[in-house]
Specification:
Chain A: Pfam families: EF-hand_7. Chain A: Belongs to the calcineurin regulatory subunit family. CHP subfamily. Chain A: This is Calcineurin B homologous protein 1-like. The complex is a heterodimer. By secondary structure, chain A is mainly alpha-helical. In chain A, 54% of the residues lie in helices and 5% in strands. In chain A, the strands form 2 sheets. In chain A, strands 1-2 form a two-stranded antiparallel ribbon. In chain A, helix 5 crosses helix 7 and helix 8 packs across helix 9. The longest helix of chain A is centred in the C-terminal third of the chain and has 15 residues. Chain A is globular. The relative contact order of chain A is 0.12. By secondary structure, chain B is of the alpha/beta class. Chain B has a domain of 276 residues. Chain B has 14 helices and 10 strands. In chain B, the strands form 3 sheets. Chain B has a 5-stranded mixed sheet with strand order 2-9-8-3-6, sandwiched between helices. In chain B, strands 4-5 form a two-stranded parallel sheet. Chain B has a two-stranded parallel sheet with strand order 7-10. The longest helix of chain B is centred in the middle third of the chain and has 42 residues. Classes of the chains: A mainly alpha, B alpha/beta. At the A-B interface, helix 2, helix 4, helix 5, helix 7 and helix 8 of A face strand 1, helix 5 and helix 14 of B. Strand 5 of chain A pairs antiparallel with strand 1 of chain B.
């Protein structure tokens, strides 16, 4: 009862999403149910508030940054189902032989980069890094200490000495990180 | 002559109706069972089983992947598999079980991955918000309330569903509504009469029996089939009975087997009238709005009530809100502070016959009752657990958690630390601060 109208997802749409994201038919249907239960206003879009209503996300020190990374691309304040699934597809595990681009190492790194890139200029500045660090540690580490951490981190990654971390430099800094594992979620079939 | 015929016809129609109602009400009054409801429930199980097979068949034909290899329908399955670390340290340690000392490191850009992954996982599937939505069923029960994607799978199923619809709305609904009206009228009248009796043992005994009768009649209005386990642990006077909370119907279910003192806020209108009738018959605890906010006053009155073994045990739902019967959420510590004996009770409804959960942000009480009246039945298990008391070295919160775990374990429910009030309120920032503190401990000073 109630939200029957919002439960319509045409077969062609599912098929299209399946092709672009690599999610199975069944996974898409279940993601759609989740999307609808998050969509409290029942208008087919998610707003930032819909995300913040998830307590586990609201208490995540970087919850705001994650939401930002979701909305980053759309440049407006709502997210439709296709956009939502597309971002989630980034977190599909990387398997040999799967030809999907959305869940590549590069896309996973892009998501992480976006979380640091507060002003969308494709560069991480000292201020941006400091801001994110503050979110992660709260009041537990002094500003001075965090400043040192930020300086050291930028210095280590900044190859062209412009005092900023570009996406290429970010990729290089994360070279030895097992991003494929750390940024993958085990989706069930 | 015509009038006469009409009277005869009405008379003939009334006889089966009256005997039907008395067949329901009279056994209910004495707690007897003829076995009709249990037979009815058995038949339903068979029909659902058949429907499930039809769905499996139909979805195979249309080539959808709803059915897994072992033939079960998987929509109720979890979407993702999550490790659920208790804190950030465990999350960073992963499978390695490294100690906090070993995990200590200088900040790296890649530290963000952990927060990103857990955050996105919570977007896909979180512990809390899904507890406030109707539980998803593993198979369709021919009600439209859950699993809405199972419609129009086959003609036979649609016919079956329509038949079920007619039975539920044209037979069960009117029958149950009239029964409820009879039950409530009965209770108002009888409770008012008890109110005039002089206080004492006689009044208490009569109240005891009348209350059981009333709640049982109300239970029949919902075709309640309740299995009470371990009845030797039923709450006694001078104690507090705590239970997990799914719906206002919980009180009817529990009240059909034992008498409780109710506690709550004074209401106006119809409910206020009921409350006053209740109060005249027995001592219940009603607070006015201002008093309710004064925690000390609340606990004083609870304490003085609980200390009197002649008074009925107080019934409390310490979650403070209805949860969808898949989990138990945080218990408010109030009733665990006053050193009374706690009688825990676990209530688990069988969701196949109708979802007992009252989603109060979606349905008004009346809408909810109509949904209940048009559900198949209300089948549930009630487990009485051995009474518990607070240990000397235990805080009220620890005690509350111990009771909660016991209830969750017995009822097969998930034991959650989250506060059920999150349904309406924002999460407290202390949870976030805890994560920040935990993460900070993993960072080496520079």
């Amino acid at each position: 009862m109630g939200s029957r109208s919002s439960l319509l997802l045409r077969d062609e749409e599912i098929e299209e999403i399946r092709r672009t994201t690599g999610f199975s038919h069944n996974q898409i249907i279940r993601l759609y149910h989740r999307f609808n239960s998050l969509d409290k206003s029942n208008n087919g879009f998610l707003s930032r508030e819909d995300f913040l209503r998830i307590p586990e996300l609201a208490i995540n020190p970087l919850g705001d940054r994650i939401i930002h990374a979701f909305f980053g691309e759309t440049h407006d304040s709502t997210l439709n189902f296709k956009q939502y699934v597309k971002v989630l597809a980034t977190f599909r595990p990387v398997k040999d032989g799967s030809d999907n681009r959305l869940n590549s190492r590069e896309e996973k790194l892009k998501f992480a980069f976006k979380m640091y890139d507060v002003d969308h200029n494709d560069k991480i500045s000292r201020e941006e890094l400091l801001l994110v660090l503050q979110m992660m540690v709260g009041a537990n580490i002094s500003e001075e200490q965090l400043g040192c951490i930020a300086d050291r981190t930028i210095q280590e990654a900044d190859n062209d000495n412009d005092g900023l971390i570009s996406f290429e430099e970010f990729q290089k800094a994360m070279e030895r990180t097992d991003v494929e594992q750390k940024m993958s979620i085990r989706f069930l079939h | 002559m015509d009038d006469h015929l009409l009277l005869v016809i009405i008379g003939l129609l009334l006889v089966p109706l009256i005997s039907l109602y008395s067949m329901v009400i009279i056994p209910a009054m004495f707690g007897l069972e003829i076995g009709v409801r249990r037979l009815y429930v058995k038949i339903l199980v068979h029909i659902f089983e058949w429907g499930k097979q039809r769905i499996a068949l139909a979805s195979k034909q249309s080539g959808e992947e709803i059915v897994t290899s072992n033939g079960t329908v998987v929509t109720a399955q979890e979407l993702i598999q999550r490790d659920k670390p208790n804190n950030v340290t465990e999350g960073f340690a992963g499978d390695s079980n490294n100690s906090i000392e070993k995990l200590k490191h200088s900040f790296e850009l890649s530290d963000i991955c952990y927060f990103a992954r857990t955050g996105v996982e919570s977007i896909i599937d979180d512990e809390v918000t899904k507890r406030f939505d109707a539980e998803e069923l593993p198979s369709w029960n021919l009600l439209t309330r859950t699993n809405q994607n199972y419609q129009f799978l086959s003609i036979r199923l649609t016919v079956l569903w329509s038949l079920g619809f007619i039975i539920r709305y044209c037979i069960l609904l009117p029958f149950r509504v009239t029964l409820t009206i009879i039950g409530i009228l009965w209770c108002m009248v009888v409770y008012s009469i008890i109110g005039y009796l002089p206080a004492g043992k006689l009044k208490r005994t009569i109240y005891w029996h009348i209350s059981l009768m009333t709640q049982r009649i109300l239970g029949r209005c919902l075709s309640a089939v309740v299995n009470y386990h371990n009845r030797e642990y039923r709450a006694e006077g001078g104690g507090i009975c705590v239970a997990n909370h799914t719906s206002p119907i919980d009180t009817v279910i529990l009240g059909g087997d034992n008498c409780y003192a109710m506690i709550g806020q004074e209401q106006g209108g119809f409910f206020g009238m009921m409350q006053r009738a209740f109060s005249r018959a027995e001592s219940h605890i009603w607070f006015d709005r201002a008093e309710m906010k004064d925690r000390k006053a609340v606990s004083m009155r609870m304490k003085s009530h609980a200390e009197d073994p002649l008074k009925l045990p107080i019934l409390i739902f310490p979650e403070g809100t209805c949860i969808n019967n898949t989990s138990v959420m945080m218990f408010k510590k109030g009733c665990f502070e006053i050193n009374a004996t706690i009688y825990p009770v676990a209530i688990k409804y069988d969701p196949r016959f109708g979802d007992a959960f009252w989603n109060s942000s979606k349905f008004s009480l009346l809408e909810y009752l109509i949904l209940m009246f048009t559900s198949w039945a209300l089948v549930c298990d009630v487990w009485y657990l051995p009474p518990m008391t607070k240990k000397d070295d235990e805080s009220a919160v620890e005690f509350a958690n111990r009771v909660k775990s016991a209830i969750a374990k017995q009822g097969g429910l998930l034991d959650l630390v989250w506060d059920g009030q999150l349904k309406r309120q924002q999460v407290k920032s202390t949870f976030k601060e805890k994560q920040q503190a935990d993460y900070s401990k993993l960072l080496k000073a520079e």
